[in-house]
Amino acid sequence: MSEAKPAGPHGYSAEKQALMARLKRVEGQIRGLQRMVDEDTYCIDILTQISAAKSALHAVAVGLLEDHLKHCVVHAAAEGDVDAKIKEASAAIARLVKS
């Protein structure tokens, strides 16, 4: 069961345009991968591009996690309710490391 998500601006709000640009680049990489498979590109070349796409998506995830720590966890600490946010961040880190 997940906790209620805070409404209002999130930690990434100030960087939303940059975040969207990075995600659009990842989307383009995925479309490129589809094209490569469709065109019967050499396997290793496809795997290289998959690695690049994963790295780009990982960078987005790490940035979001950093924003979460700077904004949401700090805000929760100021209100005296940091334990739940730290637990939430730890679970997100565990998922990120596992993937």
TrEMBL record:
Pfam families: Trns_repr_metal. GO terms for molecular function: DNA binding; metal ion binding. Keywords: Copper, DNA-binding. InterPro entries: Metal_Tscrpt_repr, Metal_Tscrpt_repr_sf. The keyword Hydrolase does not apply. It comes from the Bacteria. GO terms for biological process: negative regulation of DNA-templated transcription. PANTHER family: COPPER-SENSING TRANSCRIPTIONAL REPRESSOR RICR, TRANSCRIPTIONAL REPRESSOR FRMR-RELATED. Belongs to the CsoR family. This is DNA-binding FrmR family transcriptional regulator. It comes from Actinoplanes italicus. The lineage of its organism: Bacteria, Bacillati, Actinomycetota, Actinomycetes, Micromonosporales.
